[in-house]
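Listing 4. Sequential folding, example run.
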Amino acid sequence: MEECTGPLSRVLDCCLDFITRHTRQFEIVVRRKRETISEYPEAVPREAILNALAHRDYGLVGTTIDITVWDNRIEVQSPGPLPGHITVDNMRVEHYSRNPKIMRVLKTMGLVEEYGEGVDRMHQEMEVRLMEPPIFNVTTDSVTVTLLNRSIASVEDQVWLAMLGTEQLSADERLAVFLAQNEMTVTPRRLRQIRPESDAGGILDVAVTKGLLVRTGKRGGSRYELSLEMRLRVGATGIAAQTRKQQMLIEEIHRRGSISTAEGTKLLDESMATTRSLLNGLVQEGAARAEGQTRARRYYPFD
């Protein structure tokens, strides 16, 4: 058991450090740069803890905010019920502060941007990575938010899905793009298999209007593929595929100590030219170093 005490900013940092140390961190290559990606969107545990600090019932003496990290979830439990008129159904759009002075302090410190946006932001950040939404369990004694780490998308795919964040896509549109990318095409039936309650046809039509997908075949047998623009960004030669291949090369370099272009080509089942380009890209971004010329060149971990 670990305890976090002190000023609010120190408590927040302590709690986030605890979560970082007890959840998985993935190293992947993004745009030829090696980066560490957290198992959960970083903003989500942060907002859960801030909400607990701001809205807990401090009148309940002897109680604490409890954070538990499991293999498949994080739970943040806050003493006291939901404040005022707030319910599980309206908490994304309504705001009521049990502790207005604490909220003002958090905003003054820059820890909170706008009042009442924390829960909505948690939902949005999870939606971006096709993860399940936060679950709120409310009793007369406490509020517990559960964050599940389940997603139908791999970590690499979650990264490029996050790169689409500025496009204002709905969660259903993201799912459609993801399926089209990973399964070559997506159909209304396939979309309904994952989201039974969704208007699959309407979602796909909007995605076509936005230029995300193109429709092939006649209505009733229609299939949807990534548009040319999206293929250039995330298709077979795009971010997701390149990220996976570069990640494989980095892991093999560290496992073997070094690799040649020929060895990398065999690993990826790609052409020599493609493999050489990927390896040289890693060198240019400082993720690996090269020694030797042409056929004798080998690639080593960057010191």
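-- end of first protein; second protein begins --
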Amino acid sequence: MADQVLVTEVVLRDGFQDEPLVVPTHEKLRLARALVDAGLTSLEVGSFVAPGKVPQLADTDELVSTLEPGTPATLHTLVFNERGARRAIAAGARSVRFVVSASEGHSVANAGVGTDAALDRLAAAASLLTSAGVALEACIATAFVCPFDGDTDPGRVVAIASRLIGLGARVIHLADTIGAANPSRIRRTVKAVQGLDRPLGLHAHNTYGLAAANVWEALNLGVRRFDSSLGGIGGCPFAPGAAGNAGTDDLVNLFHREGLATGIDVVKLAEIRTQVGITVGHRLESALSAIPAVPAALR
């Protein structure tokens, strides 16, 4: 059997949050179901953030409450504080991701407080979610480079990851929020965090065209969890210069050609990619207009 890679599709959250239009809830629901039908087993579907701050994600409660019953995939949502945790529980969420910035500058821009304060206010949220049986993961934003503070010290990332693990995070995702990382920086930080003995994931952006190279470096280090957005759309509204995400279509093509299984039907994925382009009304950032078929053994 081919080595397995877990792809988490983030177009419904990270992809749409940076678009000028607000995608209708019924369209998000249709795309989510199509993605599951195409073989995706992990989707990031929204964020329990103040609706006025990111209006593109104001329907997260409805998406989760509608999709969770009977959906054969893990549906992740972002939580930043106790209020978000209560909303997640009320909506029936089964898995949430805490997001904390490794850099002070981005933490203030994204969460309104510095990194330590952001971690402190997650303690009550973690207690609530754990008591409700909700699985916890964590994502460390600006884990490699920050648009405000520059390069991020791997030791700082390790310290933040340790605190998140103490809160109950089962998986740690490292985010190249502005796409400014390079393979050697990926290697240093991933190796440092691997010492904590938790599964690692990589959330790559493609600002400088290095997403595939960075993913390849992480793969060679043993990482097998990757976030990506169909068509390469998305970015962080609170990180100047952040371009699109790593394209799901591009990464699946890379994984399959290298003999890594994803469980994803590439023909169906290409069809959904076309639908996403129609929904957002502009050219998609990933390189491929269609995904070539691969042997069924690698899907």
